[in-house]
Records
---
Amino acid sequence: MQRVGNELNAEAHLSAPIKIAIVDDEASMRRALARLLKSAGIEAFTFSSAREFFDDPIHQQVDCAVTDMRMPGFDGLELQEQLSRTLPHLSLVFITGHGDIQGSVKAMKGGAVDFLEKPVDGKTLLPAIRRAAERSRALKASHKERMALERRYADVTPREREVFALVTSGLPNKHIAADLGVSERTIKVHRARVMKKMRAESLAHLVRMAQRLGVHTVAERA
């Protein structure tokens, strides 16, 4: 039991406290899981149904949802499908009292971090929750970064976008100027504006931005 306690306490060492949603129609299961997570320093929010979970604003703040596979009405797989549309970064850990191979395969294909059978113990559940929370945070951060890049890119003019694509293709200013029929000085001005608008610290940084945004290089367009 001490070993389990040590593993649980390790969860508190993440950069911010983990917040977990427990979605299960069995009150005894919700209480047991909530006690387990609380002992690990994890904040748990319990819900008796997927609908109750979605109706609570906290569903947008949790790092992971631990959900039963089979529930009356809105089941675990339907919850997963809904989340894929509204909160695609939120990772799920499924638990079930029934050995449902077909359901588990569908859940894992849908992006579930793990699929566990009841009764679930801390040694199995907590590592799965850690992976799910870390995955959710990474995906959320990546989404925010992509949105920030798209906002910056929206301020780049059509001509600057041409220069952006050509510069990140590795072409020198002289060749870009010849391709676009302008002076090399003009290309330098456009390039500097692109760097400023995209807040790129270097050409390598700008190239990574182009890759994230799907800006097509000369080679890709050929």
---
Amino acid sequence: MLGRLLLLFILLPLVELILLLWLADLTSWQVTVLFVIVTGAVGVWLVRRQGFRTWRRITEEFAAGKLPAEALWDAAMILVAGALLLTPGVLTDLVGLTLLIPPCRRWYRRRIVRWFNAHTTVHYRSSDTSAEPRRAPEIIDSYVVRQEKESG
């Protein structure tokens, strides 16, 4: 796991830097900087728009008494999309933009849920193992009395 994280934190920025330098070589450094700024600004705008829409969906499903599992997954992926779009780079921008497209988000969600189902196990255990009925907890009311030291 540590090796994968190191690879992610070393290899991904290196690839991003190479792609940005390649883009600057194809166009100019001004166009590359403008690309980074525009993708960040457009990303923030899209994230806010979709974030508010998803937030509304979550509250509506809660109000209807449903668990908003899909909407919560969408909210998490929109949050990740925002972080990726604010990160300067070509690959992170592409992945961030795909996370903001609902059909792509559904595709990612299916893959992530499938991965979780394959790599995790859920065990259920009842906390009440006795057959006797539950009683209300006993409440004890108390107060503290301060005791003065005796002078000698």
